[in-house]
Amino acid sequence: MGRDLQVRVATTEDLPWIHELRHRVYAQELGQHPPDPSGRLSDGLDGDNVYLVVAHGPARTGFVSVTPPWAGRYALEKYLTREELPVLSGDGVFEVRLLTVEPERRSTGAATLLMYAALRWIAARGGRRVVAMGRTELLAMYLATGLRPVGRTVRSGAPSFEVLAGSVTGLTRAATGRYRAALARLRDRTDWRLDTPFAAPPDGCEHGGASFTAIGTDFADLDRRHRIVAADVLDAWFPPAPGVRAVLAEDPAWAARTSPPAGAEGLLAAVSAARALPVDTLAVGAGSSDLIFRAFGRWLTPTSRVLLTDPCYGEYAHVTERVIGCRVDRFPLRRADGWRIDPDRLASAVARGGYDLVVLVNPNNPTGRHAPADRLRPLLAAAPPRTRWWIDEAYIGYAGLTESLAPLAATDPRVVVCTSLSKMYALSGVRAAYLVAEPATAARLRDWTPPWQVGLPAQLAAVAALRDPAYYSGRWLRTHALRRSLAAGLAALDGTLEVEESVANFLTLTLPPGGPGAAPLVAECRRQGVYLRDLSPLSPRYEGRAVRIAVRDTEENARVVAACRAALETLRPGPAPRTAPSRAVTTGALAAG
After folding, report:
1. How far separated are the first and last CA of the chain, in Å rounded?
2. Three-state SS for 553?
3. Rounded Cα–Cα distance for residues 416 and 354 (Å)
4. Tens digits of per-residue pLDDT, 59-89?
5. Closest to 334 in 3D by CA, of 318, 346, 324, 350
6. Does residue 484 sit in helix, strand or coil?
7. Contact at 8 Å (CB) between 273 and 469?
8. Cα–Cα distance between 283 and 434 in angstroms, integer?
9. What is the CA radius of gyration of the chain?
10. What is the pLDDT of residue 203?
């Protein structure tokens, strides 16, 4: 049969057909609206929403409308206020409506394909909940997808509708479970032209690291690593300290075959000495993810309440929501505020929320903003006694080690600080991290740490790295200079781009509304061997337009700029507009918090 179906975002040429089909179905067939002499039907949301279209061969078959939260309004608000329908005020809510198929094609899989396409488009933009109006006589179809009534019925003209809602995670599970066979058949038939893959990702946290698809996870041809720029993960651009390289090279055969100290005693002592922390306040792990999974798995249950900032490192939402099943709220960071944390607003949210755990990534990944320690200490001191704080300081060296809250964590039973040695010390490949907590908490976590958790190469490397602070201080300073240079090169490409620096080893490039989104830019850059990170799945606050770029060395940064230039020329043919100066945020402004 071949790929006789096509799914795409509607173009300007599709709109007359969409409006004409809307009129035929909703005015003439269903009587929801009075007939219009023009024979077409549209509404005030057109332009704020996105239409997805299915075509069968050359003929358009059906469409569905998706309204994102950044539109600022939903069609449901024509019938119910947000006070009457609180789900509309939730976090990351996308509205799906107007699922419409040509009458002669309704017995095909077009409706299923459209609903699934809408779900994938929403998930790719960080959506967390879907709301919809389902015609009462078709309610069973909507219930089968995983949508559930919220207890409100709407009448619009002749038909009545149930207001439905569902989580993106739950709907994805229902689709890939109940409809697995049907979706497999549709996939074989479909020319999928959306900017997200047809298949939902495995039930795990989506990280960067797509660059390894170019190198090969079979490691058969490692020379490929020289042909790409891996700016989609935040690995250090510089090598580990000379002492690290020396200790790993001294006897690699012995390091590979020898069991390490079971409790990483030497590594604990090195952290204690380097950070002036009592050794009984420390626990180590094979990277911060190891510590996150181990600690959260002991502390949290499905009844626990957790507060995450939004945007935030995706591992935290994955562990709390998907693995443990906690009740998770988001504390929104605002683009208008420069993504900075407002301590007063956060204190208010924590005071009324009854949270078991609050997670702060500081400096934040992916925003790159840093909240100064002297602004956080009063916030932590005033928080409810029952609330534990997890402070992730994976990038604290870039802001200055004196900004660490580790000394507070060593004495306050409500505060835990987790620090990865991967990004700051160029040790991502060997996996080493530590956390700081008051002695009783740290001891319990050590009790739940398997022996030999951190391998011998990692222990050797981490100890050597901590003994050479001067080398790393110099590399962190050089990183700031490289980041500023990269930001300037990107800002010069196009006056409509927004380049936001961070205090760490990455920056964010935001594309203007109405143009190509982040996903097409990332795809075009990959064609040139340059891998960037589309931030859209992390948070709807990025509106599908933000790309995170890791700082590399001078040569590779130049390749990043060249790839972005070529991608923009491909995606937006013609001279780049220079109607406004590009907006590049300086490091100094960010360092102020």
Report:
1. 58
2. coil
3. 18
4. 999 999 999 999 999 999 999 999 999 999 9
5. 346
6. helix
7. no
8. 6
9. 26
10. 65
